[in-house]
Amino acid sequence: xxxxxxxxxxxxxxxxxxxxxxxxxxxxQFNAILDYFEVLxxxxxxxxxxxxxxxxxxxxxxxxxLSQEETLANAGSTEDGFIKAPRxx
Amino acid sequence: MKTIxxxxxxxxxxxxxxxxCGCSTDYRDDEPNTHCxxxxxxxxxxLPRLNKRAVEYGLRVAKALDMKVPEESEFARxxxxxxxxxxxxxxxxxxxPLAVEGTVEIEDDEGHEKIVRITRVHLEEDPGRLVHVAGxxxxxxxxxxxxxxxxxxxxxxxxxxxxxxxxxxxxxxRTVLEYLGVFDGDxxxxxxxxxxxxxxxxxRVEVKNISSYKxxxxxxxxxxxxxxxxxxRGQKVTRExxxxxxxxxxxxxxxGKEEEHDYRYFPEPDLRPLRVAGWxxxxxxxxxxxxxxxxxMAQFGISLNHARTLTGDPKLADFxxxxxxxDPVLAATWVADTLLGELNYRDMSIAAVPADRIAELLELxxxxxxxxxxxxxxxxxxxxxxxxxxxxxxxxxxxxxxGLARATGGEFTQIVQAVIAANPQAVEDYRTGKKGALNFxxxxxxxxxxxxxxxxxxxxxVSECLEIGGV
Amino acid sequence: MAGTLEFSPDDRYNAFITTCSxxxxxxxxxxxxxxxxxxxISTAGIETTCGSKILESYxxxxxxxxxxxxxxxxxxxxxxTNMDEFGMGTTTETSAFGPTxxxxxxxxxxxxxxxxxxxxxxADLVPMALGTDTGGSIRCPAAFxxxxxxxxxxxxxxxxxLIAYANSLEQIGPMARTVExxxxxxxxxxxxxxRDSTMLDRPYDHRPSADIAGxxxxxxxxxxxxxxxxxxxxxxxxxxxxxxxxxxETVTVSIPGMRHALAAYYVICTSEASSNLARxxxxxYGPAVDTxxxxxxxxxxxxxxxFGTEVRRRVMLGTFALSAGYxxxxxxxxxxxxxxxxxxxxxxxxxxxxIAGPTMPTVAFRLGEKTDPLSMYLSDILTVPxxxxxxxxxxxxxxxxxxxxxxxxxxxxxxxxxxxVDAAYAYEQEVRA
Lengths: 89, 471, 433
Known about the structure:
Chain B has helices at residues 52-64, 163-180, 213-232, 289-300, 304-311, 314-323, 328-346, 355-366, 372-387, 395-402, 413-422, 424-431, 436-449, 455-470, and strands at 3-12, 76-79, 89-92, 99-107, 113-125, 129-132, 140-143, 150-156, 191-199, 205-210, 240-245, 250-253, 266-267. By secondary structure, chain B is of the alpha+beta class.
């Protein structure tokens, strides 16, 4: 059983905002889905699918970069060639 | 109380392009956000492509550290949010690293050889660089030029017993990396360290963010003192992450949210696994520091100390080998004792010094055309010229211009007489048997002659003159 | 031959998010043909939103590899089609730009998540379109709208420029009114691209052949069991009988791993999605994040506002499935289940050359009919196995129930896309004749 506080913790971990009044419904739906996922407890065997192809590389040769203008074009806000981001302190 | 130290070292690999895209890694002094493409910016839909050379460099290190390369290794995503991390996950390696179980030999605090075990090495991408706006830091500024630079993370077992051992380990590791040609130690931030430190029986503290290898000893020394003081006061050491503030030489607690991490690792679905164990046998390692040190002692007949110093930096060792033919022991003394000191004083790199000029200088010293004192003077003139980017004159030209050629003592009789005349007190002291007085007088003559004569020969002349004068 | 195509469609079904009123084109095998592109495929200079507000106004500085191939082949890219937000849906109702309606019955959903592409083709606005298929997102809308849709073998079409939902499952594929056109489009887009490390150099260059004499068709009982509308099952059985009439033989096969398929699929796709969608933080692209807040707070506020409910639910499910203490029970188990299903298909495809069944268990739902997420997920049960196994699967129209289209799904061995195309072509030619 997943509780409402579990849901809030998961939302925090995912940096996905969740409104207080959404929590109960998310919790109910989560539990229904997780009940369905219980079928996985009956999976036999272990190990992931085989690796298939391996060792895919490129050579260490430079390719053109985007211009600073192109790099900044989609950013919400910029300053002196930097992209502005929220503060971390 | 035993100190226990383990390190995680992040080394920027000196590839031409980034780990997963073709952007050039040479962004020093360039404008922010000019070495970027959809891949390293984490633009929607872009896919990583693994740089083969980064894998080769990683394996070179693995081989040099005598590590095991598992049959299969794999990249994984480490998920966390931070404004410098464009995809909100770092492509790294988790439960299937490139190589495991290696060793590095260092000297312990008593001067005995000891082994530091290497747990694992793995490849990962560097995040971008955050600039905090001064004054209140209302927001951050991000430069993604560094985003995607290949890093090799090297993790040790907790095998070091003091901050000094940790420093020696890092020096040794750095030397090996430079020998392997996979690392450019001159680049700022090319080697960054997280250190785990505990006092036996106490909780472990992780010090993050040490961006110079010299800072490691400082940070750890601070931590040892801090933790010992806590215990002395009857308090406990808390298990935590602390940041090293390089400028102030202290660590401070990184409390709060940052500490509870759940990285939700899973295999990177956009990359294929690696099967490169078979490559290791093909790698030709260059001669590594220990082998080179031993060879220098055997081949050139130089002391352990000189050999160790000279092989501590591959560029220095190469330099020495270029000029050793003149006279291996003389060359070792001059490079290890004199030249290195002069370079440090000028904050110069050995790369800026023309070996042929130093070889010529050694010839002059070997032939006794000039004295050691004059030799130092010539060396300084040459280095000053190099440091200012001016052409380096030939030593013979400097000797000629400055009149530094060794003179025989006879030429100085006049100067000797003058010095004796000017220092009656010293002459008196000499007569009363104070031996120091002779050295003083010789020193005065040396000064007047700017080191052009052999001090021993001068000593003989000065005492002769004193004897004569006394009769 | 090069020129410009004027495009001003009557988009009464809301098939497009963006249309290009003048679309340039060049010479080539598709010269001057209007092609619509699903809005999760990057187009240089054309807004690409994934049906989400979080990418509103995002203009990629580069073309997806397949878009470059389309341009080179002379296609005129006339617009970006509507889709469930980030591909997360089976109806195209989770789009931030409103639902698409089914041209076969505008009170019904077109299926999803490539509902816009399917509707644009079905409504005759374009002859062909690109869709993407993570767990049925090409085949479901193809079935619901009565057109042809192919999910290629995993690794056959470059994902470079496809905005990832679940990397290990999804492929870009062709949608068209006829098998021949779908195959033609496939021949253009299935070329090796070294930028996609999960690709193999196995280009598709094929003209469909209707000769299927001797083809062994595997019929898995799991595709006709509980949850499948009996009328759909019967329609599909009749279609298989048509193939038998053309000289194919049927064999019974079994995919026992099917009982785990849906749960495994949802664990894997949400896990990958939780990581893929973490980058949408309003810093480098998309609506600007409020930089005065601290980063977690700023991201959470933005992502709550700009992501729809289904996206947030799946991101949270995936975060949970990967989180400490739960990854072993969910993510790791799902990988085992996936391996088992792959092996089931390998085994079945030794006894049979292709496998046939319905594409969807029902006909198209009414708009707004499915409100409960789990019941919506359950409708993907017949399409997700092909994604888990990485095998090619095509949906071809095979009749109608109450006027609503039914799709016949044909699955084949890895890199035998040609074979499922041929079988679909043989069926189509026979019933048209």
